Amino acid sequence: MKSEFPTAQEYSSQRARYPAMTVVDIRSEQAAVTDSYKNQVLVDINNECMRLSVFEGEYRWHHHPDSDELFLVVAGELQIEFESGAQSTLKEWQSMVVPAGTVHRTRAIGRTVNVTYEKHGAQTVFVEPAPMGK
Predict the structure, then answer these.
(1) Does 133 map to a domain?
(2) Tens of pLDDT, residues 91-117
(3) pTM as predicted
(4) In this structure, what CATH number is given to the domain that contains residue 82?
(5) If you write DSSP's letter for every residue of 96-126 in order, what string do you get?
C-alpha cells in the first residue's frame, strides 16, 4: 500500500475528476482505493470542492488559512486533534466544520472514509514540528 502524502502545492492544485451533471458513485470510488492514503477532488461546487479521503493512520499537522473545512465521515471513525489539545471523534454520518486557520490533524481509526468540502484550491500550511504538547 502506498502511504505518501501530497505536497501542499499538489493538494491545492488538484482538479475535479468529474464535471458537473455527472453522477458520481462515492461508494464505488472509495471501494476502488487500495492505497493507505488517497485524497482526491471529485467535483467542484461554485468556489468550493468536494473531496473524497480514504486513509489509515494519521495525517500531518496543518491548517488552511483561507478556507473552512467540513468533514463528513461516511465509513469508519475519524479523530480530529487540535493545536490546543482538544480532540473530537466523528463516527459514521457525523460531521464537523474546522474554521479557517485552525491548526489540526486527522487520525483514522482503522480504514476511514470521509467527504470534505472546502474552498477550491485551498491553501494548506503544514506545521512542523508538531504543536506544543503533541
Answers:
(1) no
(2) 999 999 999 999 999 999 999 999 999
(3) 0.89
(4) 2.60.120.10
(5) EEEPTT--EEEEEEEEEEEEEEEETT---EE
